[in-house]
Structures are given as C-alpha cells and as structure tokens.
C-alpha cells in the first residue's frame, strides 16, 4: 500500500486529488500538506493533515519520516498570470520547492509526481498537433519553472534513479475549488457566470484555441501515470495529455444548448491573451496513450452538462 504526501492539497487540483487518493489508497495513507490556506472540513477530517511547505526542506523531511512516505504529489505552484506578477515567488515555489522535494525523495526513496503544463511551450513550438518532443522556449516565468521542473525531474531519474513522472496538463475545468490567476481560468468562470447571470465577459479573444480537460480526467491521469508499468515508459517528464480543444465561442455554444439566452461579450486582457497565444492550440498526446493508456472520458458537451448540473446545485444551496 502506498503512503502518499500531497503538497498543495488545498489548491484547485490538490483538493480533489487528495480526496480521490484517500478513496483509493485509504484515508490514513494520504497526508494532506497545506501551507497558508486552511483546508476544507472534508480534507481536514478525512485523514492526516500537516502544515508542510516545499520550500522548507527540514519540515518536508520530518513529515516524510513521520509517515514513512513513499510517494510525493507536488502540486504547489503559482498559475501563469499571477506568476507574471510575482516571478520571484513563482520560481521559489516552482523550482526551489521541487528541488527540495527531489532531494528528500532521493534520500528517502520516494516516487515524485510533477505537474507540468501547456505553459511549458512557447511561440517557437509548433502550436498545432504539438509533438511530445519538441522546442520548449516559453516566454513566461510559469513556463520557465515548468521546463526547469521537467528537466530536473528527468535528471533525478537518470542520475539517482528517483521514480519521477509528470504530465503536461492543459487548462483544468472543475466545480469544487476555483483556480486562481491562470490563463485558462475563463473556462471555469464562464460556467458560474452562465448560471448566476446568463452573461459572461471573456478575457480571451474569439479564436483563441487552447487544450482543456475536465477534473475527473485530470485526477485519473495523475493516479494512472504513477501506477503505470515503468518498463513501458519511454518518456517520464512530462507527457502531453489533452481531452479537448476549444475557443471561447465553442464553449459558449456548448453552454447555450442548456441556457439558450446565455450571452457572452469580450474584454480582452492583454497579459492573458499574450500568454494564451504562445501556448498550443492542440497537443498531440499519442505517447501518453501508447505508453500508459491515457484515454479521457469527458468531451466538451459531457463536461458542460456535468458542470452546469453540479454548479447549479451548489449555488442553489
Ligand atoms: N491552467 C494553467 C494556467 O492557466 C495552465 O497550466 O496558468
């Protein structure tokens, strides 16, 4: 049985991933690590909880020893737009934090999951059908931390045998914890605004295509990659994975099938637009499909139905 530590367990992905890991591996086997934001009641009461921060290596090592941790999910990061506002902090959390985790993992023989991103690409990358192995020269600090993280994780695998594995997540759409300061956040906000006001002002321009994924698929991917047979993995850090690609018009039309009088207008935010234009329109995820069986369950319309249903119920409480 695995003994898992999740760093960043109160974030957008961490909050749902931690609960699913507890569900699969047993509540007592999954430690929720948090820093400043207080965990939800469910997270706090369903299993062990530790105030642990990847930038504090002593505390990290203490927690690893205390619970005999063998797998670390490192989900602490600043999203792309906020990382442009605070590049020094983004580097400290994204790179120095990961370095500490890899060092502790080397010493205590832990496997490490690293979430990379579509942000690991840039304008010199082929943005359509983006290959698994291609040019990675991102123009954002977020992207710089992700490429560095991929390289560092691969280095620790090759040099020290640390079992590092990673995914290049696209924009993640969820209905539990809101993302904060990401370029793809619009694809979450649009559902809340459609239900609350039947109106949404989009910060990205019409025609801006990006890869996206519904949270249940993102969580399955994070668990499946760590369960994958290592002998089948030709790649490690990090796999392209995607479930859908759309622009603001396409997601708005998917919502209109359920809320016909929903309207969207545009007020383009230059920073987010510039970032979005430097990211893939659609990645090629065939290596993930071949090497460990990646196969998402949700497309845009099945996701829209579920998002509207879940958020509708949440807001009517
Ligand atoms: N969702 C992230 C962001 O927009 C991309 O990985 O920053």
Task: Describe what you observe in this structure.
The strands form four sheets. Strands 3-2-1-4-5-7-11 form a seven-stranded parallel β-sheet, with helices on both faces. A three-stranded mixed β-sheet has the order 8-10-12. The model has no long low-confidence stretch (mean pLDDT 97). The protein has twelve helices and 14 strands. With 317 residues, it is of the alpha/beta class. The protein folds into two domains: 196 residues, NAD(P)-binding Rossmann-like Domain (Rossmann fold); 94 residues, Alpha-Beta Complex (UDP-galactose 4-epimerase, domain 1), CATH 3.90.25. α3 packs parallel to α5. It is 45% helix and 17% strand. α1 links the parallel β1 and β2. Bound molecules: serine. Serine binds next to loops.
Cofactors, ions and other ligands in the entry: serine
Q: Kindly state the percentage of residues in helix.
A: 40-55%
Quickly name the level 1 CATH class of the largest domain: Alpha Beta
Instruction: Report how far apart the termini are.
Output: 38 Å
Number of helices: 12
Strand content: 15-25%
What is the fold named in CATH at topology level of the largest domain? Rossmann fold
Examine the secondary-structure arrangement and name the CATH architecture of the largest domain.
3-Layer(aba) Sandwich
Shape: globular
Global Rg: 19 Å
- Count of domains: 2
The CATH homologous superfamily of the largest domain is termed: NAD(P)-binding Rossmann-like Domain
- Structural class category: alpha/beta
Low-confidence stretches: none
The average pLDDT score comes to: 97
Largest sheet, in brief, is: 7 strands, parallel
If strands are numbered along the chain, what order do they take across the biggest sheet? 3-2-1-4-5-7-11
Order of helices and strands: EHEHEHEHHEEHEEHEEHEEHEHEHH
Number of beta-strand segments = 14
